Input
Amino acid sequence: MPSTDQRSADSLSDAQVAATGAALAAAFERIHRERMAGLPILHPALEVAVVGGRAWRGHWLGVLVTPWCMNLVLIPAAGSALAQDPHGTKRLLDFPAGRFELVASPVDDLGTIATCSLFSPMQAFADQATAEATAAAVITSLFEPDPDAAASGAPDADGALAAGPPEPPSGPGVSRRDLLRGGFRPR
Output
């Protein structure tokens, strides 16, 4: 019999996952055109993309890449408590890699989404391929247990990414923990 998490994950079909990712990309392409056009924070070599979209506990989860930021994004299932969160509500969510803080905000045509900032601004990325590869590594690493937390026997519950603007990974020696915490500086 599938676990509760597996049954919840199965509640979104592949078509629904793809459609939700496309709707997120379209909403942020519109924001890019209408609200962000001409701002100096934009990285001219980057465009809006959604990477690694998947069902997670009945919600949609993926990484949003834009010319101004990269965020982990959760689009709550309709009727869930997360979907009712007012703007600015902070929630700690547990993933295999640790606990992360996501903040609710409204997005036209999508309703409430919850985001965890990974990068902003995006000038550290050379190109779209590098940004998308980093986004893919983030979503993959999010579902791999944190070996440091497992070794200590205590959950990693700080829920925050590293302070300050992180640098993209630049070679061997970047751990999953560093990737998800934004700690890309050489050790």
About this structure: Residues 1-10, 152-176, 183-187 have pLDDT under 50 and may be disordered. The helical segments are 4-9, 14-36, 128-142, 147-152, 176-181. DSSP finds five helices and six strands in the chain.
